[in-house]
Amino acid sequence: MSQARNIFVVFELFSADRSDERIREVIESFGVSWARISRNTFYLHGDLDAQFVGNKVWTAMSMDDKLLVIDSTKNDARWYNIKPEISQFLINNWHG
Length: 96
Known about the structure:
about 100 residues; alpha+beta; flat; 3 helices; 5-stranded antiparallel beta sheet; Alpha-Beta Plaits; single chain; about 30% helix
């Protein structure tokens, strides 16, 4: 990793009353510039990539949650616990 990138982290917690504190803590631990755009969306700017961010953030989540990480600088994305048909749609159309 050598170039500062624009990363978006979008998540949905299965249990709406569950705290998202652990996700924010993971975001802060990266040591990069970040902003919380909305309750479920973060923007990060730094020397990270979608796979690294996704793997770290996913560890703070439950298997029932959903996560999408987009590296808009490199046109890359990672997603976790997305319906198979939506995942396939993204795979088929991402660079289409």
